[in-house]
Description:
Its EC number is 3.2.2.31. Belongs to the Nth/MutY family. Residues 62-213 form the HhH-GPD domain. By secondary structure, this protein is mainly α. Helices cover 52% and strands 1% of the residues. It has a two-stranded antiparallel sheet. The structure holds iron/sulfur cluster.
Amino acid sequence: MSDPxxxxxxxxxxxxxxxxxxxxxxxxxxxxxxxxxxxxxxxLPWRRPGTTAWGVxxxxxxxxxxxxxxxxxxxxxxxERWPTPADLAAAPTADVLREWGRMGYPRRALRLxxxxxxxxxxxxxxxxxxxxxxxxxPGIGTYTAAAVAVFHYGGRHAVVDTNVRRxxxxxxxxxxxxxxxxxADLAAAESLLPEDPATAARVSLALMELGALVCTARxxxxxxxxxxxxxxxxxxxxxxxxSRKRQRYKGTNRHVRGEIMALLRDADGPVxxxxxxxxxxxxxxxxxxxxxxxxxxxxGTDEAGRFELPSR
Length: 312
Ligand code: SF4
């Protein structure tokens, strides 16, 4: 049986005394799912029917630190070129890094290739469906494991990314979630899931979508929000704070590493050190960036000391 919908008066009284209770799973699903049906970004290629578990896993790794609009074309080309884990495992690492392109944080590409090799060799080419088994693969954390287990295999698990944590925190009357996912975050998200796994999966996707489109880090559009009458933070102002500042990229060490990677990706062959030094005016930053890229296994040197992408 559904819990009765909380009234605004009741919610206001609750915020004055203690943190408001989260809405019941039934109430949340009732409010959220019709909105999701109308706003779901079905144009994302990995949400097309027939996407394999491998395709879902690749999309999740790529979307971890890159906007989905930038991920979509790379994902399409990637799946065309390496449709199975065995295909990616067998590819030259330099090609994998070239295909990764400018999505940033390229160590993810290396971890994804390692992950592909383990799936091909130890799991017969089939992406595991159990979150615990998925978490044992390189580069796969709690969120990504749950996302694959739920969005492809239809299991009933809480799928908690930054967007979901933020929305759940606000439903519970807080302006934002803490810096890292805690057991309490997972338990709170779990408590919002209906019993039926297929409905629970849609609620998880809908919460993510709500956090991406309506209840974002920078703004709350409570007037357009389908769960406003069940939300403990509805209508409140977001505090100004450093947590919502955009991370700087220009002029950082990451920027310098990105420029060096771009030079090597586009080069026809190994590159002399002088060309690397020319990508940035601050020599100390170039030295640091080169050392980090070597340590991360993203670049190497040939017998003549020239730089190149990994030769494997
Ligand atoms: Fe709550 Fe407003 Fe966020 Fe909706 S947009 S979840 S009402 S804070």
